[in-house]
Amino acid sequence: MPEAPASASFRAMLPRNPILHARLLAALVFTLATLACDDPFAAFLGDVPLAPTEVTLYDYVTARLEDPPAFDVVLAIPARVDQTLNWDFLFQIRGGVPELVPFSAATDSVTDSGLRITSERFEALLEAPEDGYTLNAPVTVRAGDVLIARSRVDPTQFLACSRYAKLHILAIDPDEGTITFRHLANPNCGDTVLEPGQHGSL
């Protein structure tokens, strides 16, 4: 007689009583949650990178088409505004003043993309606030500033939530029309932790 498939053998071990079946399933979920340090989603979360990444953005008004003026917090990469609407803020120099401009302040659309200047040092900033971001106005910046960025709601996620990043402005070159900053972005939707090598619980 041929052997029963492993899946059939497993089904045969389950109790036929639906109440006992439900209790067994609940116990299994509880055990998995306990093994995951009380966070059943821990296995699906990524850590904040250990080291920041440095990027340069170009003045939206004067830059060449191929030079990205915007930044996508969700993917933590520069973006060209002629190729995508998936970005959260852009760089511009207006009247000689360098500014980072949230998506809603640069377009007719309304999103949760926002910026918030903080007095904390880049390394000491370990968690992003959920509120208090500038959404509808440009934010004047200078070299040395530390900001927190909140992304648009990520439509690829099951839950409606934003991503968070911290930025440290390293240099602004008005003649070249560039801004250079380093950043650390939390890869998890809705997770406000900004400590390198760590993540929160959802």
Detail the topology: elements first, then pairings.
Blueprint: H1 6-13, H2 18-35, E1 53-58, E2 70-72, E3 77-79, E4 89-94, E5 97-102, H3 103-106, E6 114-118, E7 139-140, E8 146-150, E9 164-173, E10 178-185
- What is the global morphology? globular
Largest sheet: 5 strands, antiparallel
Broad structural category: alpha+beta
- Uncertain runs are 3-15, 27-37
Helix content: 10-25%
Number of helices in the DSSP assignment: 3
**Average pLDDT over all residues:** 84
Description:
The chain is α+β, with helices and mostly antiparallel strands. The chain is 15% helix and 27% strand. It contains 3 helices and 10 strands. The protein has helices at residues 6-13, 18-35, 103-106; strands spanning 53-58, 70-72, 77-79, 89-94, 97-102, 114-118, 139-140, 146-150, 164-173, 178-185. Strands 1-10-9-8-6 form a 5-stranded antiparallel β-sheet, with no helix packed on it. It has a 5-stranded antiparallel β-sheet with strand order 3-2-4-5-7. A hairpin with a 4-residue loop joins strand 9 (164-173) and strand 10 (178-185). It is globular and about 45 Å long. It starts with 5 loop residues before the first helix and ends in a 17-residue tail after the last strand. Mean pLDDT is 84; it is low at 3-15 and 27-37.
